[in-house]
Amino acid sequence: MRLHVGCAMWQLKSWQGRFVPSSGDRLRAYAGWCNAVEGNTTFYATPSLDTVRTWAEQAPADFRFVLKLPRGVTHGSHLSDVSALPEFLRVIEPLGERVHALWVQLPGSFGPGDLAVLARFLRHLPDHFRYAVEVRDPAFFHDPHRLEDTLATVGAEWIPFDTTEFFRTPPTSDAERDAWLKKPRMPLRTAALTDRPIVRYLGRDAEDRTVEGWRKWVPIVADWLREGRSPTFFVHTPDNADAPGLCRRFHDEVRALVPALAPLPTPLIPEDDGPPTLF
């Protein structure tokens, strides 16, 4: 029984000396705090094979990467041009089982009328990977069964991006104002389709607001674990300054309901700034 928690990245300037060292193996240090990460960088550029080999060396065997497919595939061509996929799939091979799912994030312009395109795309993907789809058109949530049926044909998961707490009240910081303009206002979805549900959650810069917003998720994730599922929960805040510690706090809150849940690893101490703090 494992709950994986993680952030949108494994290094951030504000984390240096606190969660990760200022230089060196930052992924290795991050993996002491969290046991999963969103692979957002692969959306913008396919990394080199040597880079991915370095990731594989630093990440433990039970670490999870949820890697976003290249934007040229999902956004630039609406899934019609897959010429970048063979190289992308070749490059990520060193990660092996650490690739928990390949993440198909679709733009807001991709709506329910494009489901046939999505179905065709998913059917032609290699079946030795797991897939998870994130949609940004709210119309999918009005009649979710059509998308659910499409995903079920290939055993793919639907990734909800819970932004409800973030948009509940106006922004109060520069980071929140920036996120207010960029993040999608998505309806709340709490259903899982597979044995590996994935949730993206956006809180606020204030820790108490972030924790308040995820309260509904704690019993849901606990129930998933009791059902034999293996969930992954990603914690975002507008500045992400405290995200690794918040991930551990979420894990602790779920573990309080499910004592059989294995604890997270003990964090590594950044060599350049003494013992880190959780919050």
TrEMBL record:
PANTHER family, per the entry: UNCHARACTERIZED PROTEIN YECE, UPF0759 PROTEIN YECE
Name this protein carries in UniProt: DUF72 domain-containing protein
InterPro entries reported for this sequence: DUF72 (IPR002763), UPF0759_sf (IPR036520)
Pfam families per record: DUF72
Source organism (scientific name): Actinoplanes utahensis
